[in-house]
Specification:
Strands 4-3-2-1-6-7-8-9-5 form a 9-stranded antiparallel beta sheet, with no helix packed on it. An 8-stranded antiparallel beta sheet has the order 12-11-10-14-15-16-17-13. It is α+β, with helices and mostly antiparallel strands. The chain has helices at residues 3-33, 84-96, 242-252, 318-345, 354-357; strands spanning 53-57, 62-68, 71-74, 80-81, 99-104, 128-133, 139-151, 165-173, 179-183, 208-215, 218-223, 232-233, 259-261, 272-278, 282-290, 296-304, 349-352. Helices cover 24% and strands 28% of the residues. Strand 11 and strand 12 form a beta hairpin. It contains 5 helices and 17 strands. It folds into 2 domains: 48-196; 208-367, no CATH class. The chain is elongated, with a radius of gyration of 31 Å. The longest helix is centred in the first third of the chain and has 31 residues, at 3-33.
């Protein structure tokens, strides 16, 4: 090789090196600009205070959560109040999420990571579409939540941890091309089921004085003279089993529901009616309509006026009376607020698991002490 050939060879090496460096910096700049650098926030420009709407959609359903009258509500449940704790928890996780992995994945491979946007033409490989918007309806961020990544944990003894425990989520953020990131949180609460987002606080019937149940299996009424007194049948023969009475009383004070129903007509003519009168002068009327799956649709009404004054205890001293009066007034205020909320939410119907209602659905002869 002569001197001239050597110089041409060195020039070619320098040109190739310069080209490679330029391409490297170009890719690195695009990588950084996409916000996908390792350790970077998933949504660096987003603020929690700006978010007033969430929309989630997957292959089987969708849900829209939006702020109305300063309250988060579930649109698919007739504006029923949403669980603020669940919503704020998801928002904070999205804002705190950091990128732990990032790579360019061609569109043809998105289905393998469940990153296809759900739609009627998408049969397989669809993820969960998540849109975040503000109070004006403007979309602040849009993404598809894809496959949950698993992490092997040989020390975890649970059977469902055999293949690994949820450790992250593949995400395709709209506007970032084919850049797919993995964050360190599986975001398992981000589901497109309306029933998963409704507020779970329910009406509560406590301090029951009289409980009456009527339906296809007959009717019965149990009562007691004092709050801590002995339960007994109001009419008819037989001695009431105390445990059966306590079970029925406790069931009515600890009901919960699995979903909310809008404009349901099955509860108009209930198969079972429950009437509960309390020592607080409140009356709760419940109508139960059985469903094909064995659960019940429940509708309720609450009426009555709380006592305005306290009945004095025998021989109570003035200083004791003052404390008792103060406690009575505070409790009355809490009850008034609770009843107001219960009356507002009585416009909806609720799906209640049958097992919760069983103690109140027993026939009268099943309540008799053997």
């Amino acid at each position: 090789m002569n001197r001239k050939q050597f110089l041409w060879l060195m020039l070619a090496v320098l040109v190739l090196g310069a080209t490679s460096i330029a391409m490297f910096w170009k890719d690195l700049t695009a990588y950084r600009d996409s916000g996908a650098s390792i350790g970077a926030p998933l949504l660096p420009e987003l603020k929690a205070s700006d978010i007033a709407r969430l929309h989630l959609q997957d292959a089987s359903g969708e849900v829209t959560l939006a702020v109305k009258d300063k309250v988060w509500r579930v649109e698919q449940r007739g504006g029923y109040p949403a669980d603020f704790g669940e919503i704020s928890g998801l928002i904070l996780k999205l804002l705190d999420a950091k990128v732990v992995q990032s790579e360019t994945v061609g569109t043809s491979l998105h289905g393998r990571l469940d990153l296809l946007a759900p739609g009627k033409d998408v049969k397989e490989g669809a993820g969960t579409l998540l849109e975040l918007g503000d109070a004006t309806g403007k979309t602040l961020a849009k993404m598809v939540l894809g496959r949950v990544s698993l992490k092997k944990d040989p020390l975890n003894p649970l059977p469902n941890a055999r293949d690994g425990v949820p450790a992250g989520r593949h995400i395709l953020v709209d506007g970032r091309g084919e850049n797919v990131v993995v964050v360190s949180d599986p975001l398992e609460k981000a589901v497109a089921r309306p029933g998963a987002w409704v507020a779970r606080d329910f009406f509560k019937v406590d301090r029951i004085r009289t409980l009456q149940v009527s339906g296809e299996r007959g009717s019965w009424t149990i009562t007691r003279d004092e709050e801590w007194g002995q339960w007994k049948f109001a009419t008819g023969g037989g001695q009431l089993d105390p445990s059966a009475a306590v079970s029925a009383n406790n069931a009515l004070s600890s009901l919960s529901f699995s979903d909310v129903i809008v404009d349901d007509q099955t509860g108009v003519k209930p198969a079972v009616t429950i009437l509960a009168e309390t020592f607080d002068n409140l009356t709760y009327t419940l109508g139960l309509a059985p469903q094909a799956d064995g659960d019940f649709v429940l509708r309720y009404k609450v009426a009555g006026e709380l006592p305005k004054t306290r009945k004095p205890e025998p021989k109570e001293k003035p200083e004791e009376a003052e404390k008792l009066d103060k406690a009575f007034d505070e409790n009355r205020q809490r009850l008034e607020a609770r009843v107001m909320l219960e009356q507002v939410r009585s416009q909806w119907a609720y799906v209640v698991p049958a097992k919760q209602l069983m103690p109140m659905l027993a026939a009268r002869d099943q309540l008799v002490r053997r």
